[in-house]
Amino acid sequence: MSAASRAPLCSTSRNRSRRAALTTAAGGAVAALLLSACTSGGTTGGGGDTNFVMGKDGISTAKKGDRVAAPDLSGKTIDGKQLDVAAYKGKVVVLNVWGSWCSPCRAEAPGFQKVYQDLQADGVQFVGINTRDTKAANAVAFDKQYGIGYPSLYDPTGKLMLRFKKGTLNPQAIPSTLVIDRDGKIAARSLAALSEEKLRKMISPVLAEK
Predict the structure, then answer these.
(1) How many CB atoms sit inside 10 A of residue 135's CB?
(2) Residue 193's Cα: distance from chain center in Å?
(3) Phi/psi zone of residue 122: left (φ > 0), alpha (ψ -120 to 50 degrees), beta?
(4) What is the DSSP letter of 15?
(5) Confidence label for 176 from pLDDT (cuts 50, 70 and 90)
(6) What pTM value is reported for the model?
(7) In terms of Cα–Cα distance, which of 7, 210, 42 is closest to 129?
């Protein structure tokens, strides 16, 4: 067989190899995207020097003197009202980042509502940040389904999450939960869904502070 007659076979083989590689890469990219959609909060990254400690339960905490103030978290809620988290200064604020499409968010929702009901009279305010829901109606339906009684800011593109400084107790996953102390500073963070028991354990030390 001549070199000329062999060339198309080699070219076809190379093209098939390239197509296979591209298909594999594309599949990997889609898988990574789907994974990050349920676990990543965008480009808020940790990194740098930190003043917080992660416990064995996965909850990170910062001592009172080492805490960083929460950024401006204000805007429209999922039902079109205006909300500014700074208005709750003087209360312990539990901030939960969630999406109606997120299975772990659905799993933790009933426990969050129960703890909110139990601690509201003690000066604890819950606030949600709904993210990556293209329609606010989906978030409203979620709250109705699980009987959620506290407000949620509507943040479909994750702009509010990007306001948190790198190297702080910033939300980096969906769901993420932060506890903000009475001075408006971030005291604790979880980057995973929380059981009712773990949520109470996360709030209690901050609520006990004077």
Answers:
(1) 12
(2) 10
(3) alpha
(4) H
(5) very high
(6) 0.77
(7) 42
